[in-house]
Amino acid sequence: MKIEVANRRVSGPKNRRCAFIANRFDSEFGFRPGDGESWIGFNDYTLEFEGLTHVSSGTAALYSGIWSTLEGSIYVTRHDGWIVRNSNVFGPDVQSTWQDDHLEDRTLWGVFGIDDENVFVWCNDSKTDSQLVYPPSDILRRAGNDWRPMPAPGFQVIAMHGNSPDNLWVASPSGEIARWNGTTWQNIGAVKGAVHSLWVAGSDEAYATTSPGAVVHISGAGIRLMGNLPGAAIPGDAACVAKWQGNLWLGSPRLGLFRQAAETQEFECIKPNILCVSMDAREELVLCAPNRIAGTADGVEFRAYGNDCVQNIRAPHKLCQNMG
Fold first, then answer.
1. Is the distance from CB of 287 to CB of 251 less than 8 angstroms?
2. Left, alpha or beta for 163 (phi > 0: left; psi -120 to 50: alpha)?
3. What is the Cα–Cα distance from 243 to 220, expressed in whole angstroms?
4. pTM of the full predicted structure?
5. Which of 81, 40, 44 has its CA nearest to residue 313?
């Protein structure tokens, strides 16, 4: 058996100070819940690379989403109905501050937040929705130690992003887009192709990537094709998008990191060696590569932290053993 490790998602203000989720699995079959491992990792480094990458909370279930505040509290969804959270992963005693919320009969697919008071989870009823191909998602909102239902957009949610509690956008696998204004959901329209990622840059400005590599701009005026990722040929090539420091950035797990050129508006590959599966863009641009968390503070110099950390820590152990 050849064991493979792959980081899947990242969230945080800087790549040296962020949280991520990773899978460890049999490379012949890929990750399958029950037969592979999911881990929560977090980088806590200085600019001089002093610090550690911590790895915690191993499980054979699937960690389906992660979101962290700027201050260091994190929320992680597990597909089997658990939300794993920590009030400060950068605190002196991080192992004692983990908490679990169990949402019975729920399949959890992702989490996104604005701050600790506005954290949202999208999910399905594991009993009634299991026979549907694209069951409409329920949206739950954090209320202290509880998670309470709020109005839902009426379709299955595959991506969520926003910049305030009354400017929350969601997308469906089939391309539907809706916006939450704090009171109701407004249907924006639909993009062509399966949506892979969504990024909200303003009150009326959002971007999405679709299969196999289209990039679209979404606003109240409509949906506009901005272009296609050069070399994109298979679903998932355009895995993630973000607007940071006035530039549009695209990540591909096969082709590398792209930036839209100001002069030509074309997407140029500036880092073919950073195979990017997920990104965040708040204080800095944070890039989730399969074996490290890369990033930049200025768009010119790139650094990476946590190289092969899960692989190295778990190397002495057989798959799904000694995860406690």
1. yes
2. alpha
3. 18
4. 0.95
5. 40
